[in-house]
Write a structure and sequence with these properties.
Layout: E1 6-11, E2 14-19, H1 30-45, E3 51-56, E4 60-62, H2 85-101, E5 107-111, E6 114-116, H3 118-124, E7 128-132, E8 136-138, H4 152-160, H5 162-171, E9 174-176, H6 177-183, E10 188-190, H7 195-207, H8 211-224, H9 229-244, H10 247-257
Parallel strand pairs: 2-3, 3-5, 4-6, 5-7, 6-8, 7-10
Antiparallel strand pairs: 1-2, 8-9
Helix pairs in contact: 1-2, 4-5, 8-9
The structure holds ligand T3D.
Length: 267
């Protein structure tokens, strides 16, 4: 039996997807792309899943594109045509990023080690990023003559502002997790030994919340980034109208009135 490239485990309403190519620091091959996309599709379709955690096996989170995968890596033989990286992005990375950003449940990245290139931006595209203190983030793209992809050009300036985004993207230096937290690039940095326990606890907390509202919050914050204040106010009214008609809102208000813990069920 060959090892799965993504190990899927479920605990309560939390599903954990572990990238599983540890010998190559969980770097992306076409096969890993296919299994991760399929796992996210399955989680999205499964009403028992109310939060997803993405992590890596071994000492890395993900080292980005596997630079040796013949499906996408340059062919060094004389006269060989260049690989069309635009095609790689369009067919592999873009669908993955859009699937992730449109998950119907919150997604937590548990960054257990180095997250480089596409691996860094895969993590940063998640709703909350927890990182082990020994982990690091590297915008490795310019080192090999590329621009940040996997959403990096959009995510970085929004997370840390243009000056820091430019520093990270141009220089490609290793950013330790504690600095990433200080810059506002990630949510929290925690001790290595407690990473997965903290990630599970955070995910369980999110899973017990009204996930429909959490996901609407993700979309509303992203949408507001391209709006002026008046447009954002109008958009909030549209979203609130939808959520106000959902079961979770009734349950939340009723539980408050009855001084009990709510049980949310919308997804
Ligand atoms: O198709 C396209 O190219 C377009 C899409 C691009 C998206 C991208 O992600 S571009 C960026 C690609 N990633 C990188 O450039 C990062 C390359 N890796 C590194 O810089 C370093 O490995 C790390 C800083 C991540 C970790 O360094 P270190 O010293 O802890 O580990 P190492 O010794 O470099 O790596 C350990 C093994 O993993 C090693 O294999 P070996 O020698 O033990 O057999 C190494 O070759 C392998 N590995 C690490 N990263 C990759 C990789 N193999 C293939 N692809 C990788 N990206």
């Amino acid at each position: 039996m060959t090892e799965p490239l993504v190990v899927v485990t479920q605990s309560g309403a939390v599903q954990t997807l572990a990238l599983n190519r540890p010998a190559a620091l969980n770097s992306f091959t076409a096969g890993l792309h296919a299994q991760l996309l399929a796992a996210l599709e399955a989680a999205a379709a499964d009403s028992a899943v109310r939060c997803v955690v993405i992590t890596g096996t071994g000492r890395a989170f993900c080292a980005g594109q596997d630079l040796a995968d013949p499906a996408v890596a340059p062919d060094f033989s004389p006269g060989a045509a260049p690989k069309d990286l635009g095609e790689v992005i369009d067919t592999l990375y873009r669908p993955l990023c859009l699937r992730l950003r449109n998950m119907p449940v919150p997604v937590v990245a548990a960054v257990n080690g180095v997250a480089a290139g596409a691996g860094a931006n895969l993590a940063l595209g998640c709703d909350l990023v927890l990182a082990a203190r020994s982990a690091s983030f590297i915008q490795a793209f310019t080192k090999i003559g590329l621009v940040p992809d996997t959403g990096g050009t959009w995510l970085l300036p929004r997370l840390v502002g243009r000056a820091q985004a430019m520093g990270l993207a141009l220089l490609g230096d290793k950013l330790p997790a504690a600095d990433a937290e200080r810059l506002g690039l990630i949510w929290r940095c925690v001790d290595d030994a407690s990473l997965m326990q903290e990630a599970q606890a955070l995910a369980e907390r999110l899973a017990a919340m009204p996930v429909k509202a959490l996901v609407a919050t993700r979309h509303a914050l992203d949408a507001a980034a391209g709006m002026d204040y008046a447009q954002a106010l109008a958009h909030e009214a549209v979203v609130q109208r939808t959520l106000g008609a959902a079961a979770d809102y009734r349950e939340g208000v009723q539980a408050f009135a009855e001084k009990r813990s709510p049980t949310f069920s919308d997804r």
